[in-house]
Every structure is written in structure tokens, then in C-alpha cells.
Amino acid sequence: MYYNKTKTNNAISAFRCDLNCAQSVISAFLEDLRVDREMSMNMSNGFGAGMGRLQETCGAVTGAYMVFGLHNAAIHKDLAQRKESTYSMIQQFNHEFFQIHKTTHCRDLLKCDLRTDEGQNHFYDNNLGENVCEKCIATSVSLVARLTNLE
Q: I need a surface site. Which of 19, 65, 88, 94 has the fewest CB within 10 A?
């Protein structure tokens, strides 16, 4: 399923080097988008673990949404066209991600509450970073690469 193995591997490596899931997805596309790395990492800093560990929308998903916005800002001058193209990509991405993972919610993906010690222990004891998060990152990078043609 992985459309671009280099981007996927780079994103997973970034995740393993302590970037959150949103940052990891964005980092795979920084060269293509020609955006400032530090600014992008700062902007996406709070989106890990389902937005600030609230475990709402998966960070790999929100990272993908940010890439769509940046991508469309670079190719569309008209704001309305930029917005419509971004919304369309997000909707297609969401549909496909949901088909693969059955949800876009971090809490449902991980099946634990990261705001508790018990949940944190469950996350680490069951290696959920690798077993769940990395798969979501890989799916996100692959879908973004295909939907944007950023190879």
C-alpha cells in the first residue's frame, strides 16, 4: 500500500527520533513544499497524540491535512480554489484512511487513555508507537503522496 517508500521511511525515522506523528508526516514533504522546517515543526508541535494528547483526530491525519493546505497554497493563487482543493483532498484522504484503520480518532486507534499513567504504560508495554502510530504515519504519507503527486 505504501506509495512512496522513501518518504514513508523518512517519516517513520522522524517519529522514532522524537517528532510527534503530525510532525513526522509533514517532515516527509518539507523539501517538496519548500517550507521552513523550524516553522513547520513549531506549527505542528501540538498536534501529536490526537491534538495535545486529547486523543481526538490522529496526529498523522492532522499532519496530512496541513500538508494538503501547504501544497494547495503553493499551486493555487485563488483563495477559494485553494480552499476547495484542500477540502476535496481532505475528504478523499479521510475516506481512504478510515477504510484502512476504521477510525481517525487517536483514542480508538490506540485503545488506551494517554492522559493516565495506566494508559501511558499500556502504550509503551504494547509497543503501540510501532504497532499503531507508525502504521498510521505510513498510511498518511502514502495517501498524501498519491493525492498530491508529491513523489
A: 88
CA distance 71 to 148: 7
pLDDT digits (tens, 9 = 90+) for 27-78: 999 999 999 999 999 999 999 999 999 999 999 999 999 999 999 999 999 9
Decide if 142 contacts 8 (C-beta within 8 A): yes
Residues shown for the chain:
151
